[in-house]
Amino acid sequence: MADLRGGIDLGGTKIQTAIVDASGEVVGQARQPTPTEGGPEDVAAAMVAALREAAKEAGVETGELTGVGVGSPGNADGKTGVVSAARNLTGWEGSFPLADNLKDALGAEVRIGNDVQVATEAEFQLGAGREFQSLIGVFWGTGVGGGLILDGKPWLGRGAAAEIGHIVVKRGGADCPCGRKGCVEAYAGRKAMEAEARRRHDDGEKTDLFKLMEKHGKPRLTSGIWERALDHEDDLAEELIERAVEALGTGIASAVNLIDPEAVILGGGLGIRFGERLMEPLTEEMDKHLFVNERPPAVRVASLGDLGGAIGASLLVSR
Amino acid sequence: MADLRGGIDLGGTKIQTAIVDASGEVVGQARQPTPTEGGPEDVAAAMVAALREAAKEAGVETGELTGVGVGSPGNADGKTGVVSAARNLTGWEGSFPLADNLKDALGAEVRIGNDVQVATEAEFQLGAGREFQSLIGVFWGTGVGGGLILDGKPWLGRGAAAEIGHIVVKRGGADCPCGRKGCVEAYAGRKAMEAEARRRHDDGEKTDLFKLMEKHGKPRLTSGIWERALDHEDDLAEELIERAVEALGTGIASAVNLIDPEAVILGGGLGIRFGERLMEPLTEEMDKHLFVNERPPAVRVASLGDLGGAIGASLLVSR
């Protein structure tokens, strides 16, 4: 029987699953919206349904999988399989034994990891970071998350390393969704950008951002809406994206000054959508703050796209 | 014959040498001012003289040492023993084969390392960081340097890691001696603090800083002069030290958010002098920006004092 592993990327808006073979090829995949009502049990049930669908596409039962990995938000404890304080998920402020719950339903061993760390691992093993031994993964989306690979291995610190979104770029600066001030995410996170756009729109600044959002039936300013607004040369959208790129470039440069890695891999919803388009202003911004700017790290856009998280989660199994 | 190693800490103002036994005890030491005229040959000659003096105190010839380590500023290449771009040293803009030059004069093998990295290593192996497996060394002096120990080993990146002084704390902020803007060192480095004090004094602000400097016959605002000014409740000194602590606390918190180490070790001339006195405001400042502030890293003052750099340099030999 083939060595097939399952991977589940548990996000705030969607659950992406994949069945991955030993060479890293995706042989089945499925996606479900993340339940917005109920609690952890309901989320786990949706994860099970989505993985079963992917397994069906791959022609296997979930019980035949070598194992299943989960990339989770919040505080994901790899040893106990418990996920706590996953605040982007409904009713998940406390702790929930996610691995045990899934194992019972799927009939396979389940390993839990941090969502952005496993996505970084996927890019390192199979994606845009393959040729490097040290890299920083920067996931620019709703928030700004990160992952570190040092000397070919994940660096987790005491379990909470790589919070690149919470490097401070301006003491006393903008309010961050984390409750602090001046973090990268306060300027570059999609959620913070939307809040700022809403504030400025309410103050009377002209922008088509919210008209575009309604026209396309979106509940929020998705990366696609931001792209459309840029294509329309919307002044506010241009200004807020520029501000985001400045914060990202500064924060990444600070991280590079500290770690001196071979590469930076830019992923996440906004990172994948805008990576190529904004690569020049981003690297120019980094260059202003790099201490050894004559040999900057390679900066690459994540190459596994939306499936990176699920593929990375499946890699938890083989360890 | 005893296993004795030599260590040389090459600083911008002084050359500190030590003879260290296998248990890390200092059995001889000597110090010389760093030549302010001439070039690398003259600096190397002063290093040789200072190490000979330390060896004499220890009752050995330099040729009997197991080896000699050097902690050097600038770009210190451990493989070739060449030091280049040591801009704090007179006439050392280019490259100089320091290890070979010293080896010929001392009759012992010579290893070269980065000055703050070896001081970090000394605190990790023998000083305030002994009980930890991961730490960030922060050397608060003329500039702000750093060193990283991850998983019990130095992390050098591509050779220039741990530049904690050049983490940005304020985009578009104060001018840094490195030529960039808003770095930690722009607010906290002794050199930058003195330049700011001079500027404000010339603009008519009241301060006793420069009177104290002249009274005590110092050519610059040393850490001792800053301490005296604080003891006199000098307003400008208090303000600039507070500003330095804010920048340090913010920059260290950003580094902790990225690395999540067990400990932060604070050394350097200002760090050793003010570490205990300013520990509370420093950790309060860090706390404002720590992403996981319910379990901050331990923060300790370096315990090997002025000899840490020379002891750390001697540790290069055994590797």
Structural class of chain A: alpha/beta
How would you sum up the major sheet of chain A?
A: 5 strands, mixed
What quaternary form is this?
A: homodimer
* Topology-level CATH name of the largest domain in chain A: Nucleotidyltransferase, domain 5
Low-confidence stretches of chain A: none
Task: Please give the radius of gyration of chain A in angstroms.
Answer: 19 Å
The ordered string of helix (H) and strand (E) elements of chain A is: EEEHEEEEHEHEEEHHHHHEHHEH
Biggest interface: chains and residue counts? A-B, 43 and 43 residues
What is the number of helices of chain A?
Answer: 11
Strand order of the largest sheet of chain A: 3-2-1-4-8
* Helical coverage of chain A, percent range: 25-40%
Just name the CATH architecture of the largest domain in chain A: 2-Layer Sandwich
Broad CATH class of the largest domain in chain A = Alpha Beta
Strand content of chain A: 15-25%
For the record, what is the CATH homologous superfamily label of the largest domain in chain A?
ATPase, nucleotide binding domain
Question: Number of domains in the coordinates of chain A?
Answer: 2
**Mean pLDDT score of chain A:** 95
Overall 3D shape of chain A: globular
